[in-house]
């Protein structure tokens, strides 16, 4: 029997199947037999759905990392301060605590997550909690729990409460057997880190929930993200953030990747804009639910050369970290994001020269830039 027909028969025997026969619209929890997450068949009665005319009510998980605070600020400008709740398991510094709503949320605590979604009438969820590539290899069981079990909690809450869900994936979702130059959206994905494995799992689970339960799941595979006012959380691309701090402070930098290691990268403003654009894209424009997005690709040597144009005395040395190097050598060198450009009009603003000027200006090296020019 063809698989699709077999599945339709199985679904037909499940409780809660809609009379129309469209097997994508029934909320997941109706099928979870003995799970404490089981919800009544009229669950949609109390789930708050986003009508399209209201402002979304946003929750960001893992919001105190490199990207979350920037995302909150960006979304608050668009949707209003009180409509965007930042959450994490860490204690926020004063300026973040007083900058807008902040709440404790451990994604491993399903009940806590559900309570927050219900009490705050959340309609959009940006799921940023994760352990990144290098720190994940040093804490495999924690990475497995946060990146996989945590994701399951988020998917279930999102499906039960009819949320639009954004989960970032990464260049790290590819591995040594993927085409590396360029790497297309659809190709073999056999990553060799727990981070990469968990992100492929997230892509597949999110897409499965979309096709199976109608969850509005949207996912971008980010390149390495470079930000000026936030610290990276333990990744392989962290060097491309740290180099700016050290260049401005000390005029030199010790790089933990080889000079020739080419990786896709993006400035944070482009990353946050891509994230909002894909969340706002009409569903019918999305031919896929997981897209590569890209801006530029460079090596540590390319970056050092660009920095030298502004800080002529800058020096880079190399002390290779074998774990990070092995990871980087298995990742894409160039990212093919033509589907994102075609489907929802993705276009980056920052290439390497603009990135370096912007980062140096932020770090207060205007005088040196002026002197160099
Ligand atoms: N920063 C980058 O270059 C890239 C990031 N991404 C993805 O974007 C997302 C955000 O990345 P970053 O901000 O850089 O990560 P980060 O490592 O800086 O922050 C992650 C946050 O998750 C929180 N967290 C850990 N365990 C938690 C738990 N049990 N419950 C709730 N929160 C928990 C941490 O406290 C931390 O604040 C991640 O999913 C990451 O995989 C993807 C590609 C590139
Ligand atoms: C590219 C990423 O996902 C992250 N910055 C990492 O290096 O782990």
Number of strands: 13
Sheet-strand content, in percent, reads 5-15%
CATH topology of the domain at 21-227 and 266-296 and 333-351: Rossmann fold
Largest sheet, described in full? 8 strands, parallel
Give the integer mean of the pLDDT values: 88
Topology record:
Layout: H1 3-12, E1 58-61, H2 68-79, E2 84-88, H3 94-97, E3 102-104, H4 110-119, E4 124-127, H5 133-138, H6 140-160, E5 164-166, E6 169-170, H7 194-213, E7 216-222, E8 224-226, H8 239-250, E9 252-255, E10 263-267, H9 268-280, E11 290-292, E12 296-298, H10 300-308, E13 315-318, H11 322-329, H12 338-344, H13 352-362, H14 366-372
The structure holds 1,4-dihydronicotinamide adenine dinucleotide and 2-amino-3-ketobutyric acid.
Pfam families: Epimerase
Catalytic activity: L-threonine + NAD(+) = (2S)-2-amino-3-oxobutanoate + NADH + H(+)
Domain NAD-dependent epimerase/dehydratase: 58-293
Task: Summarize the structure in words.
The chain has 373 residues and is of the alpha/beta class. It has a domain at 21-227 and 266-296 and 333-351: Rossmann fold. Helices cover 40% and strands 13% of the residues. Strands 1, 2, 3, 4, 5, 6, 7 and 11 form an 8-stranded parallel β-sheet that branches. It has a 3-stranded mixed β-sheet with strand order 8-10-12. Strand 2 (84-88), helix 3 and strand 3 form a beta-alpha-beta unit. Helix 2 (68-79) crosses helix 9 and helix 4 (110-119) packs parallel to helix 6. The protein is globular and about 55 Å long. Bound molecules: 1,4-dihydronicotinamide adenine dinucleotide and 2-amino-3-ketobutyric acid (AKB). 2-amino-3-ketobutyric acid binds at residues 132-133, 170-172, 195, 224, 235-237.
């Amino acid at each position: 029997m063809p698989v699709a027909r077999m599945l339709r028969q199985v679904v037909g025997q499940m409780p809660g199947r809609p009379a129309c026969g469209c097997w994508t619209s029934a909320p997941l929890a109706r099928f979870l037999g003995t799970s404490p997450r089981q919800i009544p068949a009229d669950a949609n009665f109390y789930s708050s759905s986003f009508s399209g005319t209201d402002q979304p009510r946003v929750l960001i998980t893992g919001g105190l990392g490199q990207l979350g605070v920037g995302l909150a600020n960006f979304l608050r400008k668009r949707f209003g301060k009180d409509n965007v709740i930042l959450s994490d398991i860490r204690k926020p510094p004063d300026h973040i605590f007083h900058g807008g709503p902040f709440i404790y949320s451990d994604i491993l605590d399903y009940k806590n997550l559900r309570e927050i979604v219900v009490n705050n009438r959340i309609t959009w969820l940006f799921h940023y909690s994760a352990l990144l590539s290098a720190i994940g290899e040093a804490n495999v069981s924690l990475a497995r729990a946060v990146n996989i079990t945590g994701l399951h909690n988020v998917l279930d809450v999102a499906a039960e409460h009819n949320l639009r869900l954004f989960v970032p994936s990464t260049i790290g979702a590819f591995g040594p057997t993927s085409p590396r130059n360029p790497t297309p959206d659809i190709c073999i994905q056999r990553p060799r880190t727990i981070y990469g494995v968990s992100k492929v799992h997230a892509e597949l689970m999110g897409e499965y929930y979309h096709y199976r339960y109608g969850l509005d799941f949207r996912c971008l595979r980010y390149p390495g993200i470079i930000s000026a006012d936030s610290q990276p959380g333990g990744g392989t691309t962290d060097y491309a953030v740290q180099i700016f701090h050290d260049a401005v402070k000390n005029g030199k930098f010790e790089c933990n990747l080889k000079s020739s290691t080419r990786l896709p990268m993006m400035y944070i403003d482009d990353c946050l804009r891509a994230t909002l654009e894909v969340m706002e894209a009409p569903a019918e424009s999305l031919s896929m639910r997981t897209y590569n997005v890209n801006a530029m690709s460079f090596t540590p040597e390319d970056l050092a050369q660009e920095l030298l144009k502004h800080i002529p005395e800058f020096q880079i040395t190399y002390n290779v970290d074998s774990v990070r190097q092995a990871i980087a050598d298995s990742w894409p060198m160039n990212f093919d994001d033509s589907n994102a450009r075609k489907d929802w009009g993705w276009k980056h603003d920052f290439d390497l020269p603009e990135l370096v000027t912007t980062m140096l200006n932020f770090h207060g090296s205007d005088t040196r830039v002026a002197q160099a020019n």
